[in-house]
């Protein structure tokens, strides 16, 4: 009897498997894929040893203003007053622990994923020489906000054509000390911020002439210049302390490039290659180097989903035909990592939070007064790490 029942089981199982697989295959072939992925060749991720050795130092961070703000992506300070932009489109001021909304670049309703394009999403933020706030809003463009009155002025609108193309995903900015030049990134000419996962998975440089790119805005002449083109997800930007070059993080390629005006495009523009994660924002550190927050980590030893998928475009197509961006995001391990680079791009130290227990989804590390303020594009708080005690 047992051989008969195992035969029945095998036949039943195979019939079931086929009846599930065939329609699934058919559906998969028929379904549209939202992206046209390109193979990316990444080197094997660096070993997490030496200064990159995993630790739990980020878990020493405290969570500030928990559940009083959502997705504080970028943080700046004027004296001891902090400013940040949140996922519900607000520009927020935090003074003596009190939270106050000072401006909103877009308009309501705000809340869901689908509201982002009208609500606006303030990302990179900087303080100009007259204590004015410069904000990169993903949907509206480059803006200037008066921190006292909240009055907002658009400097470069996403509706403006730049070399025949509109900006689609304004991401981060860095300002010269005299406030004359603003360097900023447009991460894609095809995808908006709400579809950033498509941008990562597609892996292209859009192949268009202008975007995604590093641009320069002159606050005096009000002219916009395109400096670097066809980058793969250009994200955080930072002027060097001497203002003699601009660093731009290329998220999808896990690297940082530098731009020197007049530098011929070529091999000389790589600052750090093959990083242990996908870099988001970059800011100055008090030691003359840079703080880099990683949007995702590339574990080695370990399994890196991003590296595994990098050249397997058919798997990427399948995944995004069948699953939502939100579901795919859940496969990426929640691992928080911030690294400090020296002025020449070598690793000085790293702070980890495996599983993102205390601080999840770190988007920026902003140093102020012996503390590292940790922004996040999703978490409902700002993290603060005391640098004297790590």
TrEMBL record:
Key word 4Fe-4S present: no
Residue intervals passing through the bilayer: 12-31
Primary residence: membrane
Entry-linked InterPro entries: 6-blade_b-propeller_TolB-like, Strictosidine_synth_cons-reg
GO molecular function: arylesterase activity
UniProtKB keywords: Glycoprotein, Membrane, Transmembrane, Transmembrane helix
Membrane topology: Single-pass membrane protein
Residues in Strictosidine synthase conserved region domain copies: 171-262
Cross-referenced Pfam families: SSL_N (PF20067), Str_synth (PF03088)
One GO cellular component term noted in the UniProt record for this chain: endomembrane system
Highest taxon in the source lineage: Eukaryota
Subcellular location: Membrane
Keyword Transmembrane found: yes
PANTHER family for the chain: ADIPOCYTE PLASMA MEMBRANE-ASSOCIATED PROTEIN, STRICTOSIDINE SYNTHASE-RELATED
Family indicated by similarity: Belongs to the strictosidine synthase family.
Protein name: Adipocyte plasma membrane-associated protein
The encoding gene: Apmap
